[in-house]
Task: inverse folding
């Protein structure tokens, strides 16, 4: 497994690029290096953004971490059975935007192929959200037995009080390039990646964190000035209800616990609660 991260810095601006694969592909790696350098070399003075609700575009590193942290608490069978998950009473309901199609699978093209879980059970593809409809959770042997089902192969190492969890998340791509998504934003924010993310409210899926290594203001369909890193406090379910566009290209990233295959996503209404102060 090859995992490479690039961080480029210039004055108060930084940029990020990442590469994960079983294969060494110099052209793609060079593109990621250039991506990091390009973000750090962006023109314009760094500006502050006032707290409020903004239209945002989360690039794959950001969208995956945002959704993955919620999914760990939201789509594991133990928390679902105990009524501690956001979806505990929502199975089969149209809860999210029809643009949201989320599943867990280690067998997708481009994923890190992990055939078994930590109990030696074969990993299964599990639909979690299908066109906005809550469609499933992942099981280990213990939680599956409680419902008379078979494990989906999502057991974690023992001791594990949390229960099973999806660690090979895949978000189905849409039909818009990143440039096309940006061009439709009148006034918003482009976010490269997140940092210091933490769950504030398990039941309601509220997450807080900071942006990092490439946050830019979007104005009249164009990337404008770089922005000081921002603090957000946002309910993931509420954000997933407002996904208006999904990128056409997915990228393999490793934000927190496992491996995720994610596109960029555009959210109409993302709660910015503060910003890093000027030096």
Result:
């Amino acid at each position: 497994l090859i995992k490479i991260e690039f961080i480029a810095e210039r004055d108060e601006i930084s940029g990020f690029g990442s590469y994960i694969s079983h294969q060494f592909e110099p052209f793609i790696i060079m593109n990621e290096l250039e991506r990091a350098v390009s973000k750090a070399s962006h023109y314009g003075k760094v500006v502050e953004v006032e707290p409020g609700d903004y239209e945002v575009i989360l690039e794959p590193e950001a969208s995956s971490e945002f959704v993955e942290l919620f999914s760990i608490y939201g789509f594991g069978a133990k928390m679902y059975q105990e009524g501690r998950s956001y979806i505990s009473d929502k199975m089969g309901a149209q809860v999210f935007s029809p643009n949201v199609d989320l599943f867990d699978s280690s067998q997708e093209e481009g994923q890190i192929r992990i055939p078994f879980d930590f109990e030696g059970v074969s990993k299964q593809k599990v639909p979690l959200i299908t066109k906005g409809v809550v469609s499933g959770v992942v099981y280990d042997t213990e939680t599956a037995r409680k419902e008379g089902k078979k494990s989906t192969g999502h057991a974690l190492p023992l001791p594990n009080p949390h229960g099973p969890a999806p660690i090979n998340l895949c978000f189905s791509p849409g039909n818009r390039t990143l440039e096309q998504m940006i061009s439709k934003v009148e006034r918003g924010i482009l976010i490269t990646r997140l940092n210091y993310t933490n769950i504030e409210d398990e039941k309601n899926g509220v997450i807080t964190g900071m942006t990092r290594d490439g946050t830019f203001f979007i104005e009249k369909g164009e990337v404008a000035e770089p922005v000081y890193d921002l603090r957000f406090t946002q309910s993931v379910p509420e954000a997933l209800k407002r996904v208006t566009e999904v990128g056409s290209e997915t990228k393999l990233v490793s934000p927190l616990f496992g491996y995720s295959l994610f596109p960029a996503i555009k959210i109409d209404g993302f709660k910015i609660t503060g910003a890093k102060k000027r030096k």
